[in-house]
Amino acid sequence: DSVITVQLTEEDKVEDDVVFYLVFTGSTVQHCTSTRKINPGSLETISPGHDCCETVKVALCASREGHPVLVVAEESFQFVQDEAYDAAQFLATCAGNQQALNFTRFLDRSRPPAADVDFLDEKVALAFRHLKLPAEWNVLGADQSLTENIPRETLMHFAVRLGLLRLTWFLLQQPGGRGALSIHNNEGATPVSLALERGYQKLHQLLTEEEAREPDSWSTLSHTVHSGDYSVKHHRGLDVYLLTAEA
């Protein structure tokens, strides 16, 4: 969901009825994004979430009714894996792993500043949204035979303990997310009681209200619809669309 700006040359600044879009061609996946005109010489769009780290070819295309599609320019674009993606992958594999989840509790003792927590929350939650989680993935882990009466640490405890509002919202939408709210850890705390104990009012409201809305900070992000080998994203902030297709 990073913003990409495209600067047009003088000869490319054309009439208003021309529609520009970008095509990203990777080794196994292709993305097509619409653009928004900021002014006659600048366009904006959203970077697609890619499936691997690689350099892809990007083509700027122009479309006009009754005319063939024109490739205006081509450039290369590099996708990299950052620390937030590594953290999301690590946490996804931690679901149900008590040794790993207890290890993450050391973060609680360092208590990073609020600005750092907000940055961590946004980046890790975005990375989590991009992960291709297995169909059987569950917030509570793979062992579904465990009952609510067995005390254990969960991913939801981790997110709430650090006050990660966006990550908590994401986990609530996943299988096992709501079930995790009533599970006590070894200290007898549930995610709900942790939020209350630490004074996270917005987080407590999110966990206890049946019709709680998604955090305001998410309202401008992309909404994705999957269908087979295709997915369509609508980024509400810029009002641009992104089509991803597996080659």
TrEMBL record:
Transmembrane segments: none
GO BP, one annotated term: regulation of Rho protein signal transduction
GO function terms (MF aspect): MAP-kinase scaffold activity
Any one cellular-component term (Gene Ontology): membrane
Listed name of the protein: AKP13 protein
